[in-house]
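Handout, section 3.2

Students often ask what a structure token actually looks like in practice. Rather than define it abstractly, here is a full record for Palmitoyltransferase. The first block is the sequence as you would receive it.
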Amino acid sequence: MITPKRRKNGFEKPYSCIQIVSLCIAILTMLNFSLLCVPFLPYSDFVNYIQIASVVLLIVSSLLTSIFWYHTSVVDPGDCINRDSGVYCEICAKCVHVTCKHCRRCNKCVEDFDHHCKVVNNCIGKKNYRLFIGLLVSIIFQQAFIIIFTTIFIVRLLKKNIKSFKKDSFKGLNPEAIAFFNFLTLLMSIVVVSSSMTLLGMHIYLHFKGITTYQYIMNKKSNEPVQTEGGNTNKNFHKDMDLTKIVPACK
């Protein structure tokens, strides 16, 4: 039997379809906002404070999102160090930490395994969980800014009747086309920010519960309690490991 290659991070093949689609959506929304929204926002009497604020906020939030996305993707969350005690993974053929789970997509054991994120195409565990939360927060802020300023632009069009605008006001571009792309961007941003806020809320809930996403899902499937990281409760963690070949007992 040929053992699948161990994936180090999210930049290694095979790439996830959701990863590619997410990148395309992020690039398209930022390009549309920068080229077809910001230049046409209303001006003040002296300085276009709204344009300046929108550009600065977009740059800062996009930079933070890019940084968190890159580091969440590039980190190898795998547990590559043999342990003197813990559990034995038959696939990795070594002892690993008790909170490890073997991810079949990445073919590696991940300490404090939370879930395999298809958006970054990488496992989320002890080494990159905080980066993942930072990514969610930065995405929410970035998309919220886009929603706010895109809404300002669309409301401005609706109030003044889009057909009354001259093409000169839009640098020779078709006002209807600009409105359509801004509306499309608004819809995509609403979907992104809604799903990100829901996911962040879930992780806040799980944090207070003291369990991971994987433990929560397996607990829902089996209707059995799970073991918290502190190990103070009388709960069965290894039931959550039934999809792996990890067995207790490294001495």
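Discussion prompt for tutorial groups: The CA atoms of residues 211 and 228 lie 6 Å apart. How would you have guessed this from the sequence alone?
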